[in-house]
Amino acid sequence: MVVAPRLAALIEQLLGTALPLRLRAWDGSEAGPPGGPVLVVRHRRALRRLLFKPGEMGLARAWVAGELDVEGDLYAALDLLLAPVQAHHALPARQRLAVAGELLRLAGPVVPVPPPPPREEVRRRTGPLHSPRRDRAAISHHYDVGNAFYALVIGPSLVYSCAVWDEDTASLEDAQAAKLDLICRKLGLRPGQRLLDVGCGWGSLALHAARHYGVRAVGITLSAEQAALARERVARAGLADRVEIRVQDYRETADGPFDAIASVGMAEHVGADRYREYAERLLALLRPGGRLLNHQIARPPMADERAYRVDPFIDAYVFPDGELAPLGRTVGQLERAGFEVRDVESLREHYALTLRRWVRNLEDNWAEAVRLTSPGRARVWRLYMAASAVNFERGGIGVNQVLAVRPTATGTSVLPLRPRAWTERATGQDRSPDPARQAQPH
């Protein structure tokens, strides 16, 4: 039996369109258009996974287990596959049965139990969604996989969020430094101010703000591994008197007021049901006139928001319990909590560039990444980062920096008359007048 042509015909029925790329099956047979990337089905077990778990989850398990792969340009393969997969071509019931029967024949003898999922998959979740305990477990799954692995992938800056690029940017490190400085300028940081970094990661923003803007910074994270390395970095920099790193939930932070708060790549973990609580908590931690910089991935709005579902691959292998919201909802929730939203900047293309650099780092150091974690974990990160890059490039998701202010007693907040001057990478600090600060000794 020659497998590839039969399998290609099945895929075309499921997609509702011609096979967009070359296919190679485990018997060495090929089908589909020549040239370009090749989708490789290395083992018939991949089809068994689809029988027991149809759809994206079965495909995800096969990818993580190494039973599915792509030879050639992974981005091109994903770009070809994303549109037909997301179109979700629905088959009539009779055709679905025929496809399942053919899939069963190709899969060979199937035992009555499914193949076990890869060990990198989240197994058991306990507690209410987005409760502090469950959030800690979700964060640990993603971040507590070894600081050395992250340093390999995201680079020595240890900044795990969208960098800021321009035509003259020489390296990923330069782009990340530009992002950290942009945040500090948007927040208008000055010597002696208190900064809260919510979801501080390995402490890079807190270190940058203390070193270059003279602030006293508190960084909070739920990852014990992140906190341990962040504290080491603070000590090595000689900034232990100005930077404190805590393993702490934002809901447990109670030592405000802070002059400024940064939340970079953290709000995606909060959840729709908790977002108002998150916004209100940050508002309470800010002094009147203080600024919040909320840096968050967004998805497009849906005609029926109740139809939104978390991507099963991302939920099971990457960010358990993570949720994306449209930009409009985020801005609305911040405003309903009492913030005045002053500026919104999209960095969508910047994140695609950042992700491609991370993928390159991973691929260039593949053997070491596998040694530090596992083959499955390395495959998870490669797929999620490459697919995310394509999705950012296509506009399927975006990322935005929202600058908001806690109003003063008079309901006003003062920013520069032309606030977008901060994009010019001026070396001087924002020295706009701030009567609310002058009236708030601390």
TrEMBL record:
Protein name, UniProt field: SAM-dependent methyltransferase
GO biological process: lipid biosynthetic process; methylation
Family: Belongs to the CFA/CMAS family.
GO MF annotation terms: methyltransferase activity
Domain Polyketide synthase-like methyltransferase: 149-407
Transmembrane annotation, as ranges: none
UniProt signal peptide: none
Source species of the chain: Streptomyces marincola
Keywords associated with the record: Lipid metabolism, Methyltransferase, S-adenosyl-L-methionine, Transferase
Composition skew (Basic and acidic residues), residue ranges: 421-434
Region (Disordered): 114-133, 416-442
Coiled-coil portions: none
